[in-house]
Structures are given as structure tokens and as C-alpha cells.
Predict the structure of Phosphoacetylglucosamine mutase.
Amino acid sequence: MVSSSAMNDEQQSLLLSSSSRFSPPQGVKLSYGTAGFRADASLLPSTVYRVGILAALRSLKTGSIIGLMITASHNKVSDNGVKIADPNGGMLSQHWEPFADALANAPSPQHLLLLINEFVAKEGILMDGVSQAEVLLGRDTRPSGDALFEAARQGVTSVVGAVATDMGILTTPQLHWMVRARNKGMQVSEQDYFEQLSSSFRYLEDLIPAEKSKFDGLNNKVIVDGSNGVGGVKLKVLGSLLNALVIEVRNSSEDGGVLNDGVGADYVQKEKVAPHGFGSKDAGIRCASLDGDADRLVYFIVPPESSGRIDLVDGDKILSLFAVFIREQLSFLNENEGIKNSHQARLGVVQTAYANGASTNYLKQLGLEVNFTPTGVKYLHEKAAEFDIGIYFEANGHGTVLFSESFVGWLEARTKEISSGSNGSEGKKAALRLLAVSKLINQAVGDALSGLLLVEVILQYMGWSIHRWNELYHDLPSRQLKVKVADRNAVITANAETVVVSPPGLQEAINAETGKYHQGRCFVRPSGTEDVVRVYAEASTQEAADTLANSVAKLVDQFLGLGSS
Ligand SMILES: CC(=O)N[C@H]1[C@@H](OP(=O)(O)O)O[C@H](CO)[C@@H](O)[C@@H]1O
Ligand SMILES: [Mg+2]
């Protein structure tokens, strides 16, 4: 008997004929990596076509809508990439990544068909020609996006029963949000996204106590660097739906500048300089920067003199601001006599080893549980989902806040309960605020637009300037370096990438070096997106952090350098 998970002849010939139009590039090995496939756009049509097939299979397997995003985020404009959004709006299940790698690197249509047949059988995917699959397609503003969109569309529709829905030019988080919302049975147009964010923002503004200072004069304005990409365009639309807050967007894709060239969150965070178009005229005003696909957000302060150096208010500080606010709301809930069944909600924060040590100390001093995972949003997100409220951020500005469904249900019940009793109490307002935050923040994935609105409304609530926020703690000086080695995968780490277990002896040498520095901390790990080993060092002075990073980079070179075998 033919199993329903095998493709019939018609299905196989459809796949063979369409895949023969997309030959893989010669001599290039692609890997799904930390954030999907990325490469020079000219190398990608066959990969994107094949990821289209994978997305359709994933949709058949899960019986849910899947997302496919064409972007290379903060990479240069000539690059592009592709990644999958799973049914909950999160990253592709890690369990499917090896299949993605195998598909991308299959040398011929026949190999591709063989791989698909094997995988479909192993996963028990129904290929009965009756089951329906749907993939939402999004792309950023890169010029190569249109051709790659067409490759993705052909990949999806080469699987019988699968439809590709064009969602247009979007930020990555918008597409993830749409996938999550569609699978919850909600409306998912772009207008719905803007409406949900703007209405929950306005609602939060209305819940600011009268005695707390609101925006005044200069303070109601934020200037945002859109990295010459998609985020700026979308932020303008969002900004037009707000009342008190003025968002001035610079470096938007229609302004004609080159994507990610001297602009954007990655540039600002790594170089600690103002992006193109910002200068001493902006001193004292809150400034923020998005990356090329608007899933990262950092703030910065431009100094009055035109040295170019900025004060960076990074992902760690955004996390800290969110943690302070949410912790305060939880304490209102717990203190409130009128709230029955008050339970100690578990608030957890998640960071990676790249979090500045001063931020970790600060969060621990607040009495919060601080957890560490390896680099990559998929790991942070998974950990944060274990809490009633989990906040995660990478230092580079990628992060969000997750609310468990049971906690949201508990909050909803409390707001109803209190409406018949102590109406308008701080406890009820705290519950309403937390519910509004759960709607404002994009719980599918880190989203610079929703993150920016949450930062802005919390600053209003606190009555804080960016300077006051920046003073929460002082970053320890740090330095990041990259070392090119023969094989970066020879570095094997443990304990959330803080300890090298192989090659033997390297960690001992790093320890000996780090021990020489006051407040020294240093770790090395292979990058998941570039062919390098990254070195991160922290110490009490910038000079010491630089020297420590340089010495450890030399050690990495000695143990694994290009010359070593
Ligand atoms: C030190 C650093 O910033 N690493 C980045 C970078 O990963 P690497 O594996 O370090 O190359 O790109 C990832 C995807 O954007 C991002 O999640 C991560 O934080
Ligand atoms: Mg990005």
C-alpha cells in the first residue's frame, strides 16, 4: 500500500521540473546559521526556492500557517537571506535546521527529490494532495527582494496543496507577528498590526497617573535612524497614529541612502558613533536606531561637541528599563488588598554572555532571576517562555517580553474582579497596564517598532529623560574582536558559551590572562553568522579591556590560527 506521506508521480514531476529552473551555485556550502541563510543575493535563488518548499512542508506538517521572510537584516545591501517563522511566530524549530541545510546544498533536482521523499516519510508529512498549506511571504527593501520573492513563491507552489500569500514589503517582526496572529485566528493585515500597537500605546499613556510627569516641550520627541531600510517607512505610518509622541524618522529607505551603510543599530552599537545624518544639533534629544529589517533597537545620546562618539543605550539597558517597570507593576498587584488569589508571578530575565556585566549586576540587585543562554534569539526566547513574564535582550538590541497564557488569563480575571470592587485602584491599573504591555510588545519576536513604543511610554510613566535612564548603571568598558582561524568549529564551548572545552588548554590560558585584570571577564566563541571566532573582554578601564581582548585574540590565534591544522 502506498503511504499517504509519499508523493505521487504528478507531485514528483512538478517538483523536478520547477527545481530544474533553480540550480544551486557551484562550490558554495550554505548553512541555516543563527538567523537563516545569508549570502550575496546572486547566490541565493535556488536556496530561497528550496526554503519555499521547506516552508510548505512545515505548514503541511504543523497544519498551521508558516512565514518566509526574505532579508539579510544588517548585512550590506548586496546580500540577502531567507528565514522561516514557525506557527507561533518564533524561529524555525531547530529540529528542522539540518533538513534546511541538506535541501540548500543538494547538488541536483534528483538529489533534492530524494531528500524530500526521505524527510516526508520520516516526519510522516501528509502528501495526499488534499491537505492544504499556506505560507505568508515577506521581504525587506533590498533590490534583490523581488526576484527572490518569485523564487520563494515557486518553491512553495511546487508542493501540491500549498499556497503562497504575498504580504508585501515588511519588517521581519511584522511578518512574525502576522504568522502568530493568523494561527490564533486573528486579523493580520498590516493595518491590524499598526492598530494593535498604536491603540495599546495610547491606552498605556492614559494609564499614566496624573501626578507623574508626562511629556513636555523637548521631551515628547524621539529621532529615529531607520538604517535606510524598511523600518523607517513603517515607523512613519505608526507615528501618524499617535498623539503626544513625535517620531522624527531619518535615513528611511525612500531617502535614497544605502541600506546599512554608516547607519543602523548594528553600526551604532558596534562602532559607538552617531549614524549618518545625526550630529551635535541633536544633542540632548532622545535618538534611536533600527537595523535593516527592524528587529533590533538601540538608543543613543549625541554629545554637544561634534566628536562623533555617542553614549550608547543598548539592549541591556532597554531590558533593565522594562524590568524596572514590570517589577513595579507586579509589586502594585501584590500589595493590593482588593486582589484575590494574588500570586507571586515569576518574572525572569534572559541575557547572553555579551550582556555588559554591569547590567547583570544591576538586575540581580533588583532581586531578579537572571538566566543565560547561548547567543541567538531562538535560545533566549525559549528560556524566557518558561516564566509568567520573561524579558530577553541581546546587548545588540534584539529582544522582547513574553507573557505566559496562564498569566494573561489571570490578569484578565483580576481586572474583571476588581471592576466590581475597588475601581481604579493602583492594583487594577497595574493589571491593565501589564495587559496593555502584552498587546503592545511583539511576543512573536524582538520588534524595534513595538520595543520603541514601549520604551517611550515607560519613560513617560517614569518621567525620565534618556539621561536619567542611562544612569541606571554605568557600563563596564568592553571590547569585541574577531579572529579568523582555520576552522572556527574547532572551538567547542559550554556554560552558555562562557567556557571553552576544546581545544584543550585554551580556557586555562584565557583564565590566566583574565585573572590579571581588575573586573576582568573574557570569553571566546565561534560566530554563527560569520567565519570567525569572536572574542569579548570586559575590564575596569577601556585600555585594560582592549589589552585583555588583544591578548586573548593572540591566544586564539596560537591555538587555532590559520597556520594550525
Ligand atoms: C555578538 C553578536 O552580536 N552576535 C550576533 C550575531 O551572531 P553571531 O553568532 O555572533 O555571529 O548575529 C545574530 C543574528 O543576528 C545575533 O543574534 C547575535 O547576537
Ligand atoms: Mg535584524
Q: What stands out?
A: The chain has a mean pLDDT of 93.
